[in-house]
Amino acid sequence: MEGLVSLKTTPPGLSFHASPPSTSARNLSLVRRSLPASSMGTRRRNGVVSIRAQQSETKDESATVSPANGDVETALKVKEWEVGMFHNEVAATQGIRIRRRPPTGPPQHYVGPFEFRIQSEGNTPRNILEEIIWHKDVEVAQLKERRPLFRLKNALDSAPPTKDFVGALRAAYQRTGLPGLIAEVKKASPSRGILREDFDPVEIAQAYEKGGAACLSVLTDEKYFKGSFENLEAIRNAGVKCPLLCKEFIVDAWQIYYARTKGADAILLIAAVLPDLDIKYMIKICKMLGLATLVEVHNEREMDRVLGIEGVELIGINNRNLETFEVDISNTKKLLEGDRGQKIREKDIIVVGESGLFTPDDIAYVQEAGVKAVLVGESIVKQSDPRKGIAGLLGKDISS
Ligand SMILES: O=C(O)c1ccccc1NCC(=O)[C@H](O)[C@H](O)COP(=O)(O)O
Protein backbone atom coordinates (compact mmCIF):
# COMPACT_ATOMS: atom_id res chain seq x y z
CA MET A 1 0.00 0.00 0.00
CA GLU A 2 1.37 3.38 -0.97
CA GLY A 3 2.98 5.30 1.84
CA LEU A 4 3.04 2.43 4.28
CA VAL A 5 6.00 0.68 5.75
CA SER A 6 5.56 -3.04 6.10
CA LEU A 7 6.76 -4.97 9.12
CA LYS A 8 7.86 -8.52 8.53
CA THR A 9 9.32 -11.06 10.88
CA THR A 10 12.97 -11.84 10.39
CA PRO A 11 15.06 -14.75 11.59
CA PRO A 12 15.85 -14.51 15.31
CA GLY A 13 19.31 -13.39 16.33
CA LEU A 14 19.45 -10.03 14.62
CA SER A 15 20.13 -7.13 16.91
CA PHE A 16 17.30 -5.10 18.42
CA HIS A 17 17.94 -1.43 19.06
CA ALA A 18 15.47 -0.22 21.61
CA SER A 19 15.99 3.47 21.02
CA PRO A 20 14.07 5.81 23.33
CA PRO A 21 10.72 6.60 21.79
CA SER A 22 10.39 10.01 20.23
CA THR A 23 6.77 10.09 21.23
CA SER A 24 5.00 9.10 24.41
CA ALA A 25 1.83 7.45 25.56
CA ARG A 26 0.35 10.92 25.62
CA ASN A 27 0.97 11.26 21.92
CA LEU A 28 -0.64 7.93 21.31
CA SER A 29 -3.82 9.39 22.71
CA LEU A 30 -3.33 12.31 20.33
CA VAL A 31 -3.46 9.95 17.43
CA ARG A 32 -6.26 7.92 18.89
CA ARG A 33 -8.59 10.73 19.71
CA SER A 34 -9.61 11.22 16.11
CA LEU A 35 -10.30 7.59 15.35
CA PRO A 36 -13.62 5.87 15.71
CA ALA A 37 -13.81 3.69 18.81
CA SER A 38 -13.93 0.60 16.63
CA SER A 39 -10.38 1.23 15.45
CA MET A 40 -8.75 1.34 18.88
CA GLY A 41 -7.82 -2.32 19.22
CA THR A 42 -4.64 -3.94 17.99
CA ARG A 43 -4.86 -4.68 14.32
CA ARG A 44 -3.25 -7.56 12.62
CA ARG A 45 -2.64 -7.37 8.93
CA ASN A 46 -0.53 -9.47 6.66
CA GLY A 47 3.02 -8.87 7.68
CA VAL A 48 2.20 -6.99 10.92
CA VAL A 49 3.07 -9.08 13.89
CA SER A 50 2.38 -9.33 17.60
CA ILE A 51 4.88 -6.96 19.17
CA ARG A 52 5.32 -8.56 22.59
CA ALA A 53 5.93 -12.08 21.28
CA GLN A 54 8.54 -10.93 18.82
CA GLN A 55 10.43 -8.86 21.33
CA SER A 56 10.82 -11.58 23.91
CA GLU A 57 12.09 -14.02 21.31
CA THR A 58 14.82 -11.88 19.88
CA LYS A 59 15.71 -9.02 22.15
CA ASP A 60 19.41 -8.17 22.15
CA GLU A 61 21.37 -7.61 25.39
CA SER A 62 22.84 -4.46 23.89
CA ALA A 63 19.50 -2.70 24.24
CA THR A 64 20.08 0.42 26.33
CA VAL A 65 16.72 0.71 28.10
CA SER A 66 15.57 -1.44 31.00
CA PRO A 67 13.87 -4.60 29.76
CA ALA A 68 10.50 -3.85 31.35
CA ASN A 69 10.32 -0.25 30.24
CA GLY A 70 11.84 -1.08 26.91
CA ASP A 71 9.18 -3.68 26.19
CA VAL A 72 6.35 -1.41 27.15
CA GLU A 73 7.72 1.63 25.39
CA THR A 74 8.58 -0.23 22.26
CA ALA A 75 5.20 -1.93 22.17
CA LEU A 76 3.57 1.47 22.63
CA LYS A 77 5.69 2.94 19.92
CA VAL A 78 4.82 0.28 17.44
CA LYS A 79 1.15 0.46 18.42
CA GLU A 80 1.25 4.19 17.85
CA TRP A 81 2.68 3.53 14.47
CA GLU A 82 -0.04 1.01 13.66
CA VAL A 83 -2.79 3.38 14.77
CA GLY A 84 -1.22 6.20 12.77
CA MET A 85 -1.05 4.04 9.70
CA PHE A 86 -4.67 3.06 10.20
CA HIS A 87 -5.62 6.71 10.47
CA ASN A 88 -3.98 7.25 7.11
CA GLU A 89 -5.85 4.30 5.64
CA VAL A 90 -9.18 5.67 6.88
CA ALA A 91 -8.29 9.08 5.48
CA ALA A 92 -7.27 7.57 2.14
CA THR A 93 -10.72 6.00 1.75
CA GLN A 94 -12.06 9.57 1.81
CA GLY A 95 -9.63 10.64 -0.89
CA ILE A 96 -7.32 12.39 1.60
CA ARG A 97 -3.81 12.26 0.20
CA ILE A 98 -2.16 14.14 3.05
CA ARG A 99 -0.78 11.51 5.40
CA ARG A 100 -0.27 12.13 9.08
CA ARG A 101 3.28 11.96 10.28
CA PRO A 102 4.38 8.45 11.22
CA PRO A 103 3.79 8.79 14.96
CA THR A 104 6.82 6.75 15.98
CA GLY A 105 9.38 8.77 14.06
CA PRO A 106 11.67 7.18 11.53
CA PRO A 107 10.77 3.50 11.54
CA GLN A 108 14.30 2.57 10.47
CA HIS A 109 15.07 2.60 14.20
CA TYR A 110 13.18 -0.66 14.43
CA VAL A 111 15.40 -3.39 13.21
CA GLY A 112 16.05 -6.86 14.53
CA PRO A 113 12.85 -8.75 15.11
CA PHE A 114 11.28 -6.88 12.24
CA GLU A 115 12.37 -6.22 8.76
CA PHE A 116 11.26 -2.84 7.53
CA ARG A 117 10.59 -2.40 3.93
CA ILE A 118 9.92 1.17 2.81
CA GLN A 119 7.43 0.91 0.02
CA SER A 120 7.49 4.62 -0.79
CA GLU A 121 8.65 7.84 0.85
CA GLY A 122 6.94 6.85 4.11
CA ASN A 123 9.18 9.01 6.26
CA THR A 124 9.45 12.07 4.06
CA PRO A 125 6.65 14.52 3.38
CA ARG A 126 5.68 14.39 -0.28
CA ASN A 127 4.54 17.97 -0.66
CA ILE A 128 4.40 21.28 1.20
CA LEU A 129 1.01 20.70 2.79
CA GLU A 130 2.12 17.34 4.13
CA GLU A 131 5.33 18.92 5.42
CA ILE A 132 3.37 21.67 7.19
CA ILE A 133 1.05 19.11 8.76
CA TRP A 134 3.87 16.85 9.92
CA HIS A 135 5.61 19.79 11.50
CA LYS A 136 2.35 20.95 13.07
CA ASP A 137 1.78 17.56 14.69
CA VAL A 138 5.07 17.87 16.55
CA GLU A 139 4.54 21.53 17.40
CA VAL A 140 1.07 20.91 18.83
CA ALA A 141 2.25 17.92 20.87
CA GLN A 142 4.87 20.17 22.48
CA LEU A 143 2.44 23.02 23.08
CA LYS A 144 -0.07 20.67 24.64
CA GLU A 145 2.57 19.31 26.92
CA ARG A 146 3.28 22.81 28.20
CA ARG A 147 -0.36 23.88 28.40
CA PRO A 148 -2.72 20.94 28.74
CA LEU A 149 -6.37 21.62 28.12
CA PHE A 150 -7.32 21.98 31.77
CA ARG A 151 -4.75 24.80 32.07
CA LEU A 152 -6.47 26.74 29.28
CA LYS A 153 -9.67 26.94 31.25
CA ASN A 154 -8.98 30.25 32.99
CA ALA A 155 -7.85 31.87 29.77
CA LEU A 156 -10.97 30.52 28.06
CA ASP A 157 -13.19 31.98 30.75
CA SER A 158 -11.59 35.39 30.43
CA ALA A 159 -11.44 35.47 26.60
CA PRO A 160 -13.46 38.28 25.01
CA PRO A 161 -16.89 37.15 23.80
CA THR A 162 -16.98 35.88 20.22
CA LYS A 163 -18.06 38.14 17.39
CA ASP A 164 -20.43 36.93 14.69
CA PHE A 165 -18.16 36.01 11.78
CA VAL A 166 -20.86 34.65 9.48
CA GLY A 167 -23.20 37.54 10.29
CA ALA A 168 -20.49 40.07 9.44
CA LEU A 169 -19.99 38.47 6.01
CA ARG A 170 -23.73 38.45 5.28
CA ALA A 171 -24.06 42.07 6.40
CA ALA A 172 -21.14 43.18 4.20
CA TYR A 173 -22.64 41.46 1.17
CA GLN A 174 -25.94 43.22 1.81
CA ARG A 175 -24.27 46.56 2.37
CA THR A 176 -21.93 46.62 -0.61
CA GLY A 177 -23.43 44.21 -3.11
CA LEU A 178 -19.95 42.69 -3.29
CA PRO A 179 -18.58 39.56 -1.65
CA GLY A 180 -17.80 40.22 2.02
CA LEU A 181 -14.04 40.64 2.36
CA ILE A 182 -11.97 38.55 4.73
CA ALA A 183 -8.69 40.45 4.60
CA GLU A 184 -5.65 38.39 5.49
CA VAL A 185 -2.85 39.57 7.75
CA LYS A 186 -0.11 37.62 5.98
CA LYS A 187 3.58 38.34 6.23
CA ALA A 188 4.94 35.47 4.17
CA SER A 189 3.95 32.24 2.51
CA PRO A 190 5.69 29.12 1.28
CA SER A 191 4.79 29.93 -2.32
CA ARG A 192 5.70 33.63 -2.34
CA GLY A 193 8.25 34.10 0.42
CA ILE A 194 8.16 37.42 2.31
CA LEU A 195 5.23 39.51 1.12
CA ARG A 196 5.91 42.56 3.26
CA GLU A 197 9.07 43.53 5.10
CA ASP A 198 7.64 46.38 7.19
CA PHE A 199 5.04 44.13 8.73
CA ASP A 200 3.06 45.57 11.62
CA PRO A 201 0.10 43.22 12.11
CA VAL A 202 -1.98 45.64 14.18
CA GLU A 203 -1.43 48.53 11.77
CA ILE A 204 -2.37 46.34 8.82
CA ALA A 205 -5.45 45.00 10.60
CA GLN A 206 -6.61 48.52 11.44
CA ALA A 207 -6.07 49.64 7.86
CA TYR A 208 -8.10 46.69 6.58
CA GLU A 209 -10.91 47.53 8.96
CA LYS A 210 -10.93 51.17 7.88
CA GLY A 211 -10.92 50.01 4.27
CA GLY A 212 -14.21 48.16 4.81
CA ALA A 213 -13.12 44.55 5.41
CA ALA A 214 -15.94 42.52 6.96
CA CYS A 215 -13.63 40.12 8.78
CA LEU A 216 -9.91 39.55 9.15
CA SER A 217 -7.86 36.40 8.75
CA VAL A 218 -4.73 36.22 10.88
CA LEU A 219 -2.10 33.65 10.03
CA THR A 220 -0.72 32.12 13.20
CA ASP A 221 1.72 29.58 11.77
CA GLU A 222 5.25 30.76 12.51
CA LYS A 223 7.47 28.39 10.56
CA TYR A 224 5.94 28.70 7.11
CA PHE A 225 4.00 31.98 7.24
CA LYS A 226 5.86 34.03 9.83
CA GLY A 227 2.62 34.54 11.70
CA SER A 228 1.89 34.06 15.39
CA PHE A 229 -0.77 33.76 18.05
CA GLU A 230 0.72 36.92 19.54
CA ASN A 231 -0.35 38.73 16.36
CA LEU A 232 -3.88 37.42 16.75
CA GLU A 233 -4.01 38.45 20.38
CA ALA A 234 -2.49 41.86 19.69
CA ILE A 235 -5.04 42.58 16.96
CA ARG A 236 -7.88 41.53 19.23
CA ASN A 237 -6.55 43.62 22.11
CA ALA A 238 -6.01 46.68 19.89
CA GLY A 239 -9.75 47.17 19.69
CA VAL A 240 -10.26 45.96 16.13
CA LYS A 241 -13.97 45.22 15.78
CA CYS A 242 -13.93 42.90 12.79
CA PRO A 243 -14.40 39.22 13.66
CA LEU A 244 -11.11 37.31 13.45
CA LEU A 245 -10.37 34.05 11.69
CA CYS A 246 -7.46 32.14 13.21
CA LYS A 247 -5.72 30.92 10.06
CA GLU A 248 -3.98 27.85 11.36
CA PHE A 249 -3.41 24.27 10.27
CA ILE A 250 -5.66 22.52 12.74
CA VAL A 251 -4.78 18.91 13.41
CA ASP A 252 -5.95 18.62 17.01
CA ALA A 253 -8.97 19.92 18.91
CA TRP A 254 -6.63 21.49 21.48
CA GLN A 255 -5.71 24.14 18.89
CA ILE A 256 -9.35 25.25 18.73
CA TYR A 257 -9.46 25.96 22.44
CA TYR A 258 -6.12 27.69 22.23
CA ALA A 259 -7.27 29.88 19.33
CA ARG A 260 -10.29 30.92 21.39
CA THR A 261 -8.09 31.94 24.32
CA LYS A 262 -6.20 34.20 21.91
CA GLY A 263 -9.35 35.96 20.73
CA ALA A 264 -10.37 33.98 17.62
CA ASP A 265 -13.96 34.17 16.42
CA ALA A 266 -13.56 31.57 13.69
CA ILE A 267 -11.15 28.81 12.74
CA LEU A 268 -10.20 27.03 9.53
CA LEU A 269 -10.63 23.30 8.94
CA ILE A 270 -8.92 21.89 5.85
CA ALA A 271 -10.77 18.96 4.27
CA ALA A 272 -7.59 17.86 2.49
CA VAL A 273 -6.12 17.10 5.91
CA LEU A 274 -9.02 16.11 8.18
CA PRO A 275 -11.25 13.06 7.82
CA ASP A 276 -15.01 13.64 8.10
CA LEU A 277 -15.16 12.39 11.67
CA ASP A 278 -12.59 14.96 12.76
CA ILE A 279 -14.42 17.74 10.95
CA LYS A 280 -17.73 16.80 12.60
CA TYR A 281 -16.12 16.58 16.02
CA MET A 282 -14.32 19.89 15.61
CA ILE A 283 -17.44 21.67 14.36
CA LYS A 284 -19.19 20.53 17.53
CA ILE A 285 -16.41 21.94 19.68
CA CYS A 286 -16.55 25.22 17.76
CA LYS A 287 -20.29 25.51 18.26
CA MET A 288 -19.79 24.91 21.96
CA LEU A 289 -17.20 27.71 22.08
CA GLY A 290 -19.23 30.08 19.87
CA LEU A 291 -16.71 29.92 17.04
CA ALA A 292 -17.54 29.85 13.34
CA THR A 293 -15.81 27.28 11.13
CA LEU A 294 -14.57 27.88 7.64
CA VAL A 295 -14.26 24.45 6.06
CA GLU A 296 -11.87 24.60 3.15
CA VAL A 297 -12.08 22.42 0.05
CA HIS A 298 -10.08 22.29 -3.10
CA ASN A 299 -11.75 19.70 -5.31
CA GLU A 300 -15.08 18.08 -6.06
CA ARG A 301 -14.52 15.14 -3.75
CA GLU A 302 -13.75 17.37 -0.78
CA MET A 303 -16.75 19.54 -1.62
CA ASP A 304 -19.05 16.49 -1.70
CA ARG A 305 -17.70 15.27 1.62
CA VAL A 306 -18.24 18.64 3.26
CA LEU A 307 -21.72 19.04 1.80
CA GLY A 308 -22.58 15.77 3.54
CA ILE A 309 -21.64 17.17 6.95
CA GLU A 310 -24.35 18.74 9.09
CA GLY A 311 -23.85 22.19 10.53
CA VAL A 312 -21.43 23.60 7.95
CA GLU A 313 -22.17 27.30 7.44
CA LEU A 314 -19.09 28.47 5.55
CA ILE A 315 -17.23 26.63 2.82
CA GLY A 316 -14.01 28.06 1.44
CA ILE A 317 -12.97 27.04 -2.05
CA ASN A 318 -9.24 27.41 -2.27
CA ASN A 319 -8.03 28.26 -5.75
CA ARG A 320 -4.51 27.35 -4.69
CA ASN A 321 -3.62 23.71 -4.79
CA LEU A 322 -1.82 23.42 -1.47
CA GLU A 323 0.23 20.49 -2.70
CA THR A 324 1.54 22.11 -5.89
CA PHE A 325 0.93 25.88 -5.30
CA GLU A 326 -0.84 26.13 -8.64
CA VAL A 327 -3.47 28.88 -8.53
CA ASP A 328 -6.50 28.78 -10.81
CA ILE A 329 -9.56 30.85 -9.96
CA SER A 330 -11.73 28.83 -12.32
CA ASN A 331 -11.61 26.18 -9.57
CA THR A 332 -14.24 28.20 -7.69
CA LYS A 333 -16.55 28.15 -10.70
CA LYS A 334 -15.99 24.46 -11.34
CA LEU A 335 -16.94 23.48 -7.79
CA LEU A 336 -20.08 25.60 -7.76
CA GLU A 337 -21.60 24.28 -10.97
CA GLY A 338 -24.70 22.09 -11.19
CA ASP A 339 -26.00 20.10 -8.24
CA ARG A 340 -23.30 21.27 -5.88
CA GLY A 341 -24.24 24.93 -6.36
CA GLN A 342 -27.88 23.99 -5.94
CA LYS A 343 -27.24 22.14 -2.69
CA ILE A 344 -25.23 25.07 -1.34
CA ARG A 345 -28.07 27.48 -2.08
CA GLU A 346 -30.61 25.14 -0.48
CA LYS A 347 -28.49 24.87 2.65
CA ASP A 348 -27.87 28.62 2.67
CA ILE A 349 -24.13 28.04 2.99
CA ILE A 350 -21.86 31.02 2.35
CA VAL A 351 -19.09 30.15 -0.07
CA VAL A 352 -15.78 31.96 0.34
CA GLY A 353 -13.53 32.26 -2.72
CA GLU A 354 -9.93 31.93 -1.52
CA SER A 355 -6.51 32.73 -3.01
CA GLY A 356 -5.26 34.27 -6.21
CA LEU A 357 -7.71 37.20 -6.31
CA PHE A 358 -6.07 40.40 -7.51
CA THR A 359 -8.46 42.53 -9.57
CA PRO A 360 -12.08 43.68 -9.70
CA ASP A 361 -12.48 41.28 -12.64
CA ASP A 362 -11.33 38.37 -10.48
CA ILE A 363 -13.86 39.38 -7.83
CA ALA A 364 -16.65 39.70 -10.40
CA TYR A 365 -15.74 36.29 -11.83
CA VAL A 366 -16.02 34.45 -8.49
CA GLN A 367 -19.10 36.42 -7.51
CA GLU A 368 -20.75 35.40 -10.75
CA ALA A 369 -19.84 31.80 -9.89
CA GLY A 370 -21.76 32.11 -6.61
CA VAL A 371 -19.42 33.23 -3.84
CA LYS A 372 -20.67 35.67 -1.24
CA ALA A 373 -17.32 36.24 0.43
CA VAL A 374 -13.64 36.27 -0.53
CA LEU A 375 -10.46 35.64 1.41
CA VAL A 376 -7.60 37.78 0.11
CA GLY A 377 -4.03 38.11 1.31
CA GLU A 378 -1.23 38.83 -1.10
CA SER A 379 -2.86 41.41 -3.34
CA ILE A 380 -3.82 43.72 -0.46
CA VAL A 381 -1.08 43.10 2.09
CA LYS A 382 1.58 44.09 -0.44
CA GLN A 383 0.11 47.56 -0.99
CA SER A 384 1.86 50.38 0.86
CA ASP A 385 -1.62 51.44 2.00
CA PRO A 386 -3.65 48.24 2.47
CA ARG A 387 -6.77 50.37 2.86
CA LYS A 388 -6.37 51.68 -0.68
CA GLY A 389 -5.44 48.13 -1.71
CA ILE A 390 -8.98 47.05 -0.81
CA ALA A 391 -10.57 49.73 -2.99
CA GLY A 392 -8.23 48.70 -5.83
CA LEU A 393 -9.13 45.04 -5.42
CA LEU A 394 -12.88 45.57 -5.35
CA GLY A 395 -13.03 48.42 -7.86
CA LYS A 396 -14.75 50.72 -5.39
CA ASP A 397 -14.31 52.28 -1.98
CA ILE A 398 -16.33 50.22 0.50
CA SER A 399 -15.11 51.94 3.66
CA SER A 400 -18.10 53.00 5.68
O1 LIG B 1 -0.21 30.89 0.43
C1 LIG B 1 0.48 29.87 0.30
O2 LIG B 1 1.53 29.83 -0.34
C2 LIG B 1 0.06 28.59 0.95
C3 LIG B 1 0.86 27.47 0.85
C4 LIG B 1 0.51 26.29 1.48
C5 LIG B 1 -0.63 26.22 2.22
C6 LIG B 1 -1.45 27.35 2.33
C7 LIG B 1 -1.12 28.50 1.70
N1 LIG B 1 -1.89 29.64 1.81
C8 LIG B 1 -3.03 29.75 2.63
C9 LIG B 1 -4.13 30.43 1.92
O3 LIG B 1 -5.09 29.76 1.69
C10 LIG B 1 -3.98 31.85 1.53
O4 LIG B 1 -3.19 32.52 2.46
C11 LIG B 1 -5.28 32.64 1.39
O5 LIG B 1 -6.23 31.96 0.67
C12 LIG B 1 -5.00 33.99 0.71
O6 LIG B 1 -4.39 33.75 -0.53
P1 LIG B 1 -3.74 34.93 -1.39
O7 LIG B 1 -4.76 36.00 -1.56
O8 LIG B 1 -3.38 34.31 -2.70
O9 LIG B 1 -2.56 35.41 -0.61
Automatic annotation (TrEMBL):
Q: Does the keyword Translocase apply?
A: no
Q: Which Gene3D superfamilies match?
A: Aldolase class I
What is the originating organism of this protein? Acer negundo
Enzyme class name: lyase
Transmembrane stretches, start-end:
none
- What name goes with this protein? indole-3-glycerol-phosphate synthase
Q: GO molecular-function annotation terms?
A: indole-3-glycerol-phosphate synthase activity; phosphoribosylanthranilate isomerase activity
Q: Does the keyword Manganese apply?
A: no
Question: Which pathway does the record list?
Answer: Amino-acid biosynthesis; L-tryptophan biosynthesis; L-tryptophan from chorismate: step 4/5
- Give every Indole-3-glycerol phosphate synthase domain span: 129-391
